């Protein structure tokens, strides 16, 4: 099963191979009792389909800035993420405007922060992932855009 098919169907198919990967780095991970159907891009992004929503996580975000105070958030052990720095949005290069969501931020085991947001399954950007030319989880730190190649569509 091609990853592009999964993207186009909103990640929530019931029957999939245990792991399916594309050459561009996307991996489809079958649901287990511990987690729902997952779509991962390398070690950077993880989308997990739940019963009512989709959990989107970016791992190892560095260079966070509090958008309310303008202060930088350290990437070092013991640092704390302020509410003004814990925001994220799914962005797909289409006509849908990204919508910022409060994010849960936890320290990454190696460096930076892992941030997670929950998106409704009918979120405009989420539904456009299979058609866009790129995808990114925008945040007030170092954002990494991912190009979606033809085989991903």
Give a description of the structure.
The protein has 153 residues and is mainly beta. The longest helix has 6 residues. It contains two helices and eleven strands. The chain is 7% helix and 34% strand. β3 and β4 form a beta hairpin. The protein has a seven-stranded antiparallel β-sheet, with no helix packed on it. Strands 7-6-10-11 form a four-stranded antiparallel β-sheet. The radius of gyration is 15 Å and the shape is globular.
Q: Tags for this entry?
A:
mainly beta; 7% helix; four-stranded antiparallel beta sheet; seven-stranded antiparallel beta sheet; 34% strand; 153 residues
Topology (elements, then pairings):
Layout: H1 3-8, E1 19-21, E2 26-29, E3 38-41, E4 45-49, E5 53-61, E6 87-92, E7 101-102, E8 104-107, E9 113-120, H2 124-128, E10 134-138, E11 146-147
Antiparallel strand pairs: 1-2, 2-3, 3-4, 4-5, 5-9, 6-7, 6-10, 8-9, 10-11
């Amino acid at each position: 099963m091609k990853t592009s098919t999964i993207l186009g169907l909103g990640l929530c198919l019931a029957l999939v191979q245990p792991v399916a990967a594309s050459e561009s780095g996307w991996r489809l991970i079958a649901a287990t009792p511990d987690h729902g159907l997952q779509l991962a891009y390398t070690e950077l992004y993880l989308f997990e389909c739940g019963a009512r929503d989709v959990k989107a996580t970016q791992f190892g975000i560095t260079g966070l800035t509090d958008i309310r105070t303008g202060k930088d958030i350290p990437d070092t052990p013991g640092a704390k993420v302020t509410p003004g720095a814990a925001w994220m949005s799914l962005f797909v290069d289409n006509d849908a405007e990204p919508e910022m969501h409060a994010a849960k931020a936890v320290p990454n085991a190696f460096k930076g922060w892992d941030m997670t947001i929950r998106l409704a399954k009918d979120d405009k950007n989420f539904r456009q992932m299979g058609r866009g030319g790129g995808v990114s989880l925008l945040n007030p730190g170092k954002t990494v855009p991912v190009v979606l190649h033809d085989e991903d569509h």
